[in-house]
């Protein structure tokens, strides 16, 4: 695990823009099992592709006419219990971080895995998400 002082700004990059951070499995289940409408769930990470593409792309995607009603995040490598439970909701996709799931009424409808993030720009991630918002939000 990384020291909290190191990851605090990485957490804040999403939470200061309205993302609700889920810290344990109970919080994840309460939100996911009782969800109405659409939700974006970001599995955050300390890696370079999270910093350079995933988080900035997610934030840019929210500047769109259609967008998810709920913004959620868990932090891989820090909040293990919450991340594990979030990944169970993202099955059948294998665990990866960063990753981004779009849910509708608690059901996964679109997934962006790490291999869809690596090597892509934040603008590409944002455009990808906006297309998913247009379809599901």
Could you please describe the fold and organization of this structure?
- 47% of the residues lie in helices and 20% in strands.
- It has 137 residues and is an alpha/beta fold.
- It has one domain: Glutaredoxin (3-Layer(aba) Sandwich), CATH 3.40.30.
- Helix 2 (25-33) runs parallel beside helix 4 (80-89) and helix 3 crosses helix 6 (122-136).
- It starts with a helix and ends with a helix.
Overview in brief:
The protein is an alpha/beta fold. It has 6 helices and 5 strands, in the order H-E-H-E-H-E-H-E-E-H-H. Helix 3 links the parallel strand 2 and strand 3.
The name of the CATH superfamily reads Glutaredoxin
Order of helices and strands: HEHEHEHEEHH
Uncertain regions: pLDDT < 50 for 5+ in a row?
Answer: none
Strand content: 15-25%
Q: In percent, how helical is the residue content?
A: 40-55%
Output the strand order for the largest sheet.
1-3-2-4-5
Quaternary structure classification: single chain
Which architecture per CATH? 3-Layer(aba) Sandwich
Overall mean pLDDT: 95
Tally of separate domains: 1
| Largest sheet: number of strands, sense, barrel closure | 5 strands, mixed
Distance between the termini: 35 Å
């Amino acid at each position: 695990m990384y020291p909290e002082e190191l990851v605090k700004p990485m957490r804040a990059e999403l939470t200061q823009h309205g993302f609700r951070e889920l810290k344990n499995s109970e919080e994840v289940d309460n939100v996911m099992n009782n969800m109405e409408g659409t939700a974006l769930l970001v599995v955050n990470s300390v890696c370079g592709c999270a910093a350079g593409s995933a988080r900035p792309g997610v934030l840019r995607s929210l500047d769109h006419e259609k967008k998810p009603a709920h913004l959620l995040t868990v932090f891989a490598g820090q909040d293990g219990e919450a991340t594990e439970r979030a990944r169970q909701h993202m099955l059948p996709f294998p665990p990866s971080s960063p990753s981004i799931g779009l849910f509708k009424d608690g059901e996964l409808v679109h997934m962006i895995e790490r291999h869809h993030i690596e090597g892509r720009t934040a603008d590409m991630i944002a455009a990808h998400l906006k297309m998913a918002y247009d379809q599901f939000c």
